[in-house]
Amino acid sequence: MEHGFSLLEWLFPSVINSKSGHVFSALIVAILLILASFLYRKSLKKSADEVIPEGRVSLKNIFQVVVEGVFNFMESVIGHNAHKYVPLIGTVFIYVLVNSLLGAIPGFSPATANVSTNLAVSLTVFVYYNYLGIKEQGFKNYLHHFMGPIIYIAPLMMLIELISHFVRPLTLAVRLFGNLTGDHIVLGIFSDLVPLVVPVIFMAFGIFVSLVQAFVFSLLSTVYIGLAVAHEEH
Amino acid sequence: MKNKQVIETGLRLRKRMKKLSAFLVAFFGQFLFVAYAMAEEASGAGSSGGSLVAIGAGICMGMAALGGTLGQGRAVASALEGVARNPGAASKVQTPMILGLALIESLVLFSFVIAIMLVGKV
Prior knowledge:
The structure holds two protein chains of two kinds. Chain A is mainly alpha-helical. Chain A has one domain. Chain A is 73% helix and 0% strand. Chain A has eight helices and no strands. In chain A, helix 3 (59-78) crosses helix 8 (198-229) and helix 7 (154-193) runs antiparallel to helix 8. Chain A starts with 6 loop residues before the first helix and ends in a 5-residue tail after the last helix. Chain B has a single domain, classed as F1F0 ATP synthase subunit C (F1FO ATP Synthase, Up-down Bundle). In chain B, 90% of the residues lie in helices and 0% in strands. The longest helix of chain B has 43 residues, at 2-44. The relative contact order of chain B is 0.10.
């Protein structure tokens, strides 16, 4: 797929082409996030006994807003156990969000517009929620979820449940990929048609899409975790 | 009296025949199409799928957009109705609505991905 101008390809033409560009933008995002979290940790140590938050927009405030937002929506989905699962889902949310937002900068192609990145993230979520389900309920009980309510239709239910479970990471990945790719293509086409002013609308739309899709990705992951760890109460 | 009955049965039969023939035309037409597409593929030799693939990609995306927007329209309409009746529920309605919209949209996006693949084959 043609993406037009790419800053990374222009800077390092020998290493980066249209195939490896996504890997490098994912790498850039990972390094940025690791640096930011180290800085945040440092700022926490400096002001351990601070009661009033800082009055300006700082790294610390941004981090706290994002983490609190993730925690709040997870609590509204899972309930009081949500804090246990915040680390992974929060990481996924921030990683996907920043990766998608990278596409809003001209000259960068977002790594989430590549299906492999999304599949890596969604498979992590898949393994994680299955692990949690087995850990919280025990292997036998978790398997019992797949059988359905009546034992006679267990073979049929097993098949349906297995398919619906294996489709989950696939749909997560393809949804994010389709949104980001479509958004990028639309932006590219309109930049070709009208180079001035009009693409700004689609850039703003791209930021909106990135936010919503990162939210949807983590929301669905949370729902899957919630379904896996929920104890059946008869 | 008997005459009328005969005419009625005849009409019914004719209606049924019409239905049957429409069905048969559709049924065999489909085979014709398949044969045509296969012949195209055989004569194309390689990656060139021809104009049929392009039409397929266009129809695929159009129908996906049609269905997706109908579904999303219904979902948003009822969510807005709920919020209009009870504005206090806005924050509680929002999350499930976005979830539903995302699930509807994912199917549209599947067909979008397929359309991209098809366009790549033209």
